[in-house]
Amino acid sequence: MITGVFFHEVFSQEDWIIIGNKFRNFPQVMEHALKLPNVKLFTPQKVSEKLLLKIHSERLVNDLKEAWYYEGASYTIGGCVEAVEKILSGEIDNALVFAVAAGHHAGRSSAWGGTYASCTGPAISNARQRFGQTRFAILDTDCHHGDGTRDIFFNDDNVLHVCFCGWNRVEGDGSKVCVDVGWKTTDEEYMNKIRQEFISRIREFKPKMILHNLGHDTCQEDYGDRGLTPDFFPQLAKEIKQCADEVCQGRYLIVTHGGARADVAEYIFPKIIEILAEE
Ligand SMILES: [Zn+2]
Ligand SMILES: [Zn+2]
Question: What percent of the chain has pLDDT over 70?
């Protein structure tokens, strides 16, 4: 069993929009976790412009290329693309991909909120090209609605998108779901909603793998504070890993998302690597 960790040194060198410089002490703070025998650190490559253009409009891609955060976004998406490919080919079992400037607020032709291109769109598009039409589940536990991801996969019945945000609604054929977690919740209440609204659905949907946008902006005293404690996030990873073991042979990818508290990032991500690497 091998866990991949995808991190590029530029992630620790900038003050990123919304999330700030929360990765300033990475990868050093993961040193212990990275030394585990079945954990492998990968330096991501930049995503190709051709792949970006399969998901995004030419205008969005051109604007992105001129922005100062293009390099960070490009390495982030490249890491997601490679991680999904390696999980599906069996080279690794699961992975944690670090993300800056790319993520769930990037739709086909517009993007905002600190994420200026999609991670899941190019990764799934590339995977299907290589491994055929497959079903994916995207779990979004960032504080905010994953509007960009929803836009990209809205008409794709082979992608289950369950987003924990501020609305209760089911769209399309039932594969596009939002769950209202409440303005203030607890670790226990949130986890119960994960079981009821995500784990129950995934057992029926039977995806080939789970992609998880794991934001920690929902943590107490962060900008999306929903009342969760730092310990919630490793617990959540553990719960979803067990679900992936049951439903899709353990194929599980975590992509970091919102959250600006560096102390929380430094606390949870080494723990999450250890959980992913547990036999
Ligand atoms: Zn957020
Ligand atoms: Zn939502």
Answer: 100
Give the distance from CA 92 to its chain's centroid: 17
Distance 171 CA to ligand 1 centre (A): 21
CB 22 within 8 A of CB 7: no
Residues with CB under 5 A from ligand 1 (ion): 142-144, 215, 217, 258
Beta bridge partners of 112: 115
Mean per-residue pLDDT, 86-90:
97
pLDDT in tens, 215-255: 999 999 999 999 999 999 999 999 999 999 999 999 999 99
Which residue in the block uniquely carries the two structure tokens 């991949």? 4
Q: How far apart are CA 207 and CA 226, in angstroms?
A: 29
The answer to whether the beta carbons of residues 219 and 229 sit under 8 Å apart is yes
- Distance from the alpha carbon of residue 7 to the mean position of ligand 2, in angstroms: 27
